[in-house]
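Might I ask for a little of your time on a matter of protein folding? Here, with my thanks, is the record as I have it:
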Amino acid sequence: MATLKDVAALAGVSVKTVSNVVNGYAFVKPDNRRRVEEALVATGYRPNLGARNLRRGRTGSLALVVPELGIPYFAELAGLVLRAARAHDWNVLIQQTLGTREGEREALAALGPHVVDGAVISPEALRGTDFAGVSGPLVLLGEHPLDLPLDHVGIDNVEAARTAVRHLLDLGRRRIAAIGAHPDRATAAQRLRGHREALADAGLTGPVASVEHYHRRDGAAAMAALLDSPEPPDAVFCFNDLLAAGALRAAADRGVRVPGDVAVVGFDDDEAGAYGSPSLTTIAPDKAGIARAAVDLLRERVDGRDLPPRRVRTPFRLRIRESTVG
């Protein structure tokens, strides 16, 4: 492998000048910078990131802690965090917690300055006291009632849910159910609040189906129970796209037309929803924006910037497809 000395000899400059170019320092003479850059290409030099991180007292890795990689939203988000981290020469260690407090506490306990430089965490069940003794920069994802001095990135889940339900109301639907309530998940509580507020604004209420998990089978079971009730809904707002996929399957099994008899809205904008039959209307968070913002916030903390806790709200949009408009 080429070394800094090899590059310096080819470029006719000092090793210090080559190091300044490699590390992005601005104060290098343009002619020297050009010669070094040409020599870097000619020699195929690659920086030793391990040695560089060791000199800086860093590991070169960050942690991403999510509830469940089997849920497409978190799988896609993980890929986007990997991409954003790569731009900063970070490796990413990924841990899933299954959304339980025990799993999330174990993930927190595994973090440390000799393991990772910092962590991006999407908690579901953690409490503020669980962060006691945790060292190193942390960035939280999602909507959580945690009064902590930490950076936070997420969308407005309440407003997103209101947007989904208002869309159904605008289509003339009045018996609008929700699928996805969960006693221990803060994000579910936010989306349930948005569902109820939108209906209350219209002078309405709607049934709510609780789930144990956010998988297709849970959505199918909840939808089946709603359709078999004395007053079945004419629309359903599901708290993620997997629940919506299960709801669509249950409707098809019963010969219920979508959207003729019942309209269905999901949340997360999974790719599979765009190609189903019918294609799924859904709330689409800016997942790439969430990943970039989280990594950028973490990078500033790792670089030692003394900043107050920041809250970044990323946008969302309603993608209208066949499951509500045919």
User: Anything to note?
Assistant: The longest strand covers residues 61-66. The mean pLDDT is 90.
